[in-house]
Design brief:
This protein has 248 residues and is an alpha+beta fold. It contains 5 helices and 10 strands, in the order E-H-E-E-H-E-E-E-H-E-E-E-H-H-E. It folds into 2 domains: 94 residues, Alpha-Beta Plaits (2-Layer Sandwich); 141 residues, 2-Layer Sandwich (Alpha-Beta Plaits), CATH 3.30.70.
Length: 248
């Protein structure tokens, strides 16, 4: 058996997220179908994590085992011939048997894009959150660094009955967290050891409350300490979120 690692980029707009679901198009499902057509094997590729419906990826990582002798370079070409144009395989590599896309991951980076201009260009509407209303961007920038370090992120995690056991840890380490203005976009970039369900989108929704001056920057520390989802802001729309990279 060979263990293969894939790096994928995808537009998540028309998919019900990463994880395969009955009667719904998913990234994992499309990839499994493509691998099956190519190798004749029934394979369920494992991703570094589950991106939600509508979330995009610049470099998602997946792994799967196969008996197929098809060289990595040929596999890349063939998979892209089979997959829909909204999913592209950027790299295929044979890796050690113990490599696992999710279990071996050491850090991930996400980016969230907010369009601040009065009019959002139609060709960007599926890929940014259009928010033209007044925001105190300085307060949002000031608060971002308060997330750096090891924290319990229960307040920023959606309840996920499939994966949440009572004893499951919500502690994660954030290595960097920053907002930056890029032309008409206000962009949040965060890198951490791992992320909980809806965590980045819930962080962005809370930062919006800071921008609206409903909250103050120091409230981030209070919300973290509360470990209660109801203390944080609403979940930001999926379409502005991108999985940027996964580190091993």
């Amino acid at each position: 058996m060979r263990n293969c690692k894939l790096v994928l980029s995808y537009d998540g707009s028309d998919f019900a997220g990463w994880q395969v679901q009955p009667d719904a198009p998913t990234i994992q499902g499309a990839l499994a179908t493509a691998i099956g057509r190519l190798t004749g094997e029934k394979v369920l590729p494992q991703g570094s994590g589950r991106t939600d419906a509508g979330v995009h990826a610049l470099a998602q990582v997946a792994s799967f085992s196969t008996d197929s002798p098809i060289p990595a370079g040929n596999m890349l070409i063939a998979l892209n011939d089979i997959l829909p144009p909204s999913i592209r395989v950027l790299e295929v590599a044979e890796v050690a048997a113990e490599f696992h896309a999710r279990k071996s991951a050491r850090a991930k980076s996400y980016r969230y894009r907010i369009w601040r201009g009065a009019i959002c260009p139609p060709f960007l509407a599926r890929y940014v959150w259009h928010y033209p209303y007044p925001l105190d961007q300085n307060a949002m920038e000031q608060a971002a660094h308060l997330l750096i370090g090891e924290h319990d992120f229960t307040s920023f995690a959606a309840v996920d009955p499939e994966t949440d056991a009572p004893e499951s840890s919500k502690v994660r380490t954030i290595f960097s967290s920053a907002w930056e203005r890029e032309g008409d976009e206000f962009v949040y970039t965060v890198r951490g050891s791992g992320f909980l369900h809806h965590m980045v989108r819930n962080l962005v929704g809370t930062f919006i409350l800071l921008g609206k001056r409903t909250l103050k920057p120091d409230d981030i520390t209070r919300i973290l300490a509360a470990r209660n989802r109801s203390t944080a802001g609403a979940t930001a729309p999926a379409k502005g979120l991108y999985l940027v990279s996964v580190e091993y």
